[in-house]
Amino acid sequence: MASALINVPKKAKRGDIIEIKTLMSHIMETGYRHTAAGEVVPRDIITNLTCRYNGVEIFRADLFPAIAANPFISFFTVATESGKFDFEWVGDRGFSGTASASITVE
Amino acid sequence: MPKQANSTRRHFLGLAGGAAVLGTIPVVTLRPAEATPATLAAAIRNVAGEAVVRTGKVKLDVPPLVENGNTVPMTVVVSNPMTPDDYVKSIHVFNEKNPQPNIGNFYLGPHAGRAQISTRIRLADSQKIIAIARLSDDSFWSASVDVVVTLAACTEEAI
Q1: Chain A neighbors of B147, CB-CB under 8 A
Q2: Interface residue A5 vs chain B (CB under 8 A)
Q3: Quick one: which H or E segment has residue B135?
Q4: CA distance B50 to A59
Q5: Residues B26 and B83 in one domain
Q6: Do A33 and B157 touch (CB under 8 A)?
Q7: Which chain B residues touch A77 with a CB distance below 8 Å?
Q8: A41-62 burial string, b = 16+ CB within 10 Å, else e?
Q9: Which domain, by its residues, includes A50?
Q10: Phi, psi of B50 (to 5 degrees)
Q11: Are A69 and B102 in contact (CB < 8 Å)?
Q12: How far is it, in rounded angstroms, from Cα B47 to Cα B134?
């Protein structure tokens, strides 16, 4: 159900600084909106994103309701070795999503 | 007698008015108050503690005029080398007038190569946005930008 988009370069030279772009489909309900009947819509957001490069954590983010729906986050890292990026999103109501991408470093 | 009736009516109206006022107070307090300068300062203190937050090094890139507050692109760049001895530990973004002062915390490391993050945020009002970077020597640097928002986020009703 959870669908994620990851953009990592397929190939890089050793030592290159590469950009990683992530997009996770999620409503990011703030918990501050009301229905027409006046009831508060309960909060339902992604609270954390973690990225691991060959098992080592390279990036982590805490998200708040002020992050727009379908959170897009991009960041940088140095391509050191061929391997895998693992992404994990964790959120309210037991939400969790994962994705991975591999890179070849020459 | 008529005087008596009049005074009860006045009395009743006074009571009713008082009840109405009492009734509205909880409603007002239940509404999420916008982040006040005090809550913003508290949120920043949570991150920086007693450390001095200096201006500089950080570049916060947000469009100055935003049409739709529901998705506002934002980029934070910290001009600091990323070496094992001198790097950016984390970037924290705050706002002044959303229901909550926090927008996001982003934790980097020396392996990031470049201290830059991008995301899309929500803005409930025209306001100031503050980005704070924490360096490896635990010094704090900040930048702030004023943004004008035409259509605010969070105000529309959910279906």
Answers
A1: none
A2: no
A3: strand B127-135
A4: 26
A5: no
A6: yes
A7: 111-113
A8: bebbbbbebbbbbeeeebbbbb
A9: 4-105
A10: -90, 0
A11: no
A12: 9
User: Are B22 and B76 found together in one domain?
Assistant: no
pLDDT digits (tens, 9 = 90+) for A21-60: 999 999 999 988 888 888 888 999 999 999 999 999 999 9
> Is B157 domain-assigned?
no
Looking at the partner chain, which of B105, B111, B120 has a beta carbon nearest the beta carbon of A62? B105
Nearest-neighbour CA in chain B from A95: distance (Å)? 18
ipTM of the predicted structure? Answer: 0.92
B13/B74 same-domain check: no
Quick check: A35 and B104 CB within 8 A? no
Is B122 close to A66, i.e. CB distance below 8 A? yes
Task: Give pLDDT tens digits for B105-129.
Answer: 999 988 899 999 999 999 998 999 9
Residue among A95, A75, A72, A71 nearest A85 (CA): A75
- The residue behind tokens 């990011």 is A28
Give the phi and the psi of residue B136 in degrees, each rounded to 5. -65, -20
Distance (Å) from the alpha carbon of B12 to chain A's nearest alpha carbon: 30
Query: What does A15-59 look like in DSSP terms, one character per residue?
Result: T-EEEEEEEE----B-S--BBTTSPBPPPB-EEEEEEEETTEEEE
Question: Is A62 part of the contact surface with chain B (CB cutoff 8 Å)?
Answer: yes
Chain Cα centroid distance, residue B156: 19
